[in-house]
Amino acid sequence: MNIIGYARVSTTDQKLDRQLAALKAEGCDTIFKEKASGKSLAGRPQLDKAIDSLGKGDLFVIAEWDRATRSMSDGLKIIQRIAERGCSIKVLDRAYLDLTTPMGKGILALLSAMAEDERERILRRAEQGRASAKRAGVRLGRKPTLTTHQQRLARSRRAKGESVRSIAKDFNVSAATISRL
Q1: Cα separation of 160 and 181, whole Å?
Q2: pTM of the predicted model, to two decimals?
Q3: Within 13 Å of residue 151, how many CA atoms lie on the same side as its CB?
Q4: pLDDT category, 28, cuts 50, 70, 90?
Q5: Long-range contacts, stretch 30-35, CB < 8 angstroms, 24+ apart
Q6: What is the chain's Cα-based Rg?
Q7: What pLDDT sits at residue 108?
Q8: CA distances from 39 to 64, 128, 178 (A)
Q9: Catalytic residue among 10, 37, 132, 156
Q10: Cα maximum dimension of the chain
Q11: Closest-CA residue to 119 (of 70, 69, 68, 72)
C-alpha cells in the first residue's frame, strides 16, 4: 500500500511547511503539492496527478480537507474518484473521521459543504469591501498606463487627426490604450 499526500496553498506567498510536515509525519511515500487558488476547480493539476497516481488499496492523505476542495459537489467528486480506484482517504485535520465508512463519507460531504459556504462568505465580504471602497471614491483596478498629462496630450493629438498608432508609438503603449482614451 502506497500513501500518497496532497498539500495546497492559495498564493505563492503562503507556505506549505505545516501541511508538508503533517504529511511526512503520516508516512506519505509521495507528496503532491501546489500553490494555486482553490476558487477554480480546474486549476489544481497536482491534485489530479495525485489521485491518478493512486493504485488499488492505496491511501490518499490530505492535511486539511478545505485545501483539496471548495465545494460540496467537488468534494463528492474527489471522494468518488478515489473510491473508484479502490482507495481510501485520510484527512489529518479531521482525525476523528474514518473516511472509509459510509458515515465518514457523509460527514466529509458535510465538511465540503461548509468549505463551500466559507468560500461564498469570503466572496461576499470581498464584494462588500469593493462596493464600500467605490462609495468612498477609491479607484479600483490597475494603475493607468499613461499619466493624466499624457492622456491629455494623446487626446489633443488625436483630435488634430494624428493616427492612433503613431501616438501609441511615441508613448510606448499599445494602440488599444490610445483608442480607449
Answers
A1: 15
A2: 0.59
A3: 8
A4: very high
A5: 30/2, 30/4, 30/5, 31/4, 31/5, 31/6, 31/7, 32/4, 32/5, 32/6, 32/7, 33/6, 33/7, 33/8, 34/7, 34/8, 35/8, 35/9, 35/10, 35/11
A6: 25
A7: 72
A8: 16, 18, 34
A9: 10
A10: 76
A11: 70
Active site residue 10: yes
| 3 state SS for the chain | CCEEEEEEECCCCCCCHHHHHHHHHCCCCEEEEEECCCCCCCCCHHHHHHHHCCCCCCEEEECCHHHHCCCHHHHHHHHHHHHHCCCEEEEHHHCCCCCCCHHHHHHHHHHHHHHHHHHHHHHHHHHHHHHHHHHCCCCCCCCCCCCHHHHHHHHHHHHCCCCHHHHHHHHCCCHHHHHHC
Q: Which three cell numbers stand for residue 90?
A: 485520510
Q: How far apart are CA 36 and CA 8, in angstroms?
A: 7
Contacts with 75 (C-beta within 8 Å, 6 or more apart), sequence order: 65, 68, 69, 108, 109, 111, 112, 113, 115
55 contacts 85 by C-beta, under 8 angstroms: yes
The owner of cell 499624457 is 150
64, 19 in Cβ contact below 8 A?
yes
- Residue length of the chain: 181
Task: Label residue 5 by pLDDT band (50, 70, 90).
Answer: very high
